[in-house]
Amino acid sequence: MKQTFFFFAFSLSLNAQSITSDQIDKLTFRNIGPAVAGGRIHDVEVVPNKPEIVFIASASGGIWKSTSKGTMWKPVFDNEIVSSFGDMAISQSNSNIIYAGTGEQQNRQSTTWGNGMYKSMDQGETWSSIGLEKTYHIGKVIVHPKNPNIVYVAALGNLWKESKDRGVYKTSNGGRSWKKILYIDQFTGAITIEMDKNDPNVLYAATYQRMRKVWGFNGGGSGSGIYKTTNGGNTWKNLSKGLPPGNKGRIGLSASRTRSNVIYATIEHADSSGFYRSGNGGSSWKRMNKLNPRPMYYSHIFVDPN
């Protein structure tokens, strides 16, 4: 056994000495894992009117772009210092403009944080940092359908400690400056935002109270809820009629793309978790069923656009 090991080590030594820099330069990388926790994709975006161009934003692997409907992909964010993403949005009025929010949404010990918002002016080929560096985790990005300079961001904030860098933020100048337009407290961030199909000044936001410590996770509290603005974020109203009382956990939202004032929600709750619907712009809610599997980890809803 000792002789075999000596021969193996001696062979490695000889091979290592024979490798040149030219040979190393010709090596290419391939994905070898991690197989369990590293493959999460948080967002898929398709360029309006160009379905062959697709972007994906991953939990820890950057942003990838395909111009062949997903047949081939290339990384487009490798030159930046962060690789974790929660959401991205392509402007409907100018598809060259893309906004990306860094820091994944999930609550696991393996969750990777980010450093704010990024913007691309050339359909993802190059990127620039545009602020909100201390938000750590971004849940949703929405761009005004007619003005690409107006953007709303749902910021969860630091998963591991109290922070005032949470809530809903808005820029009206393409990211040169930001204003916090909805804030609950240092424990509660915003997990998602939805915009009404007919009026871009009408938005719904879901807040989420969460905190992870070394010894455990506290997901939920009095800060979690659903809010609505009818004036682009200047004022907000809490929507609670028909929703379960008391502490709530993670909430998912999705507004109808065909009917104004119709909005759906998944609610994490100790006694009344499930799928809720409002047909009057959130003034009241009705529990449709108990469906809400593993709410703290996913809680996304997508309504058929047709």
From TrEMBL:
Keyword Acetylation attributed: no
Limits of the Sortilin N-terminal domain: 63-182
InterPro entries: Sortilin_N (IPR031778), VPS10-sortilin (IPR050310), WD40/YVTN_repeat-like_dom_sf (IPR015943)
Pfam families for the chain: Sortilin-Vps10
PANTHER family assigned to the protein according to its UniProt record, in alphabetical order: SORTILIN RELATED (PTHR12106), SORTILIN-RELATED RECEPTOR (PTHR12106:SF27)
Key words of the record: Repeat
Designated name of the protein: Sortilin N-terminal domain-containing protein
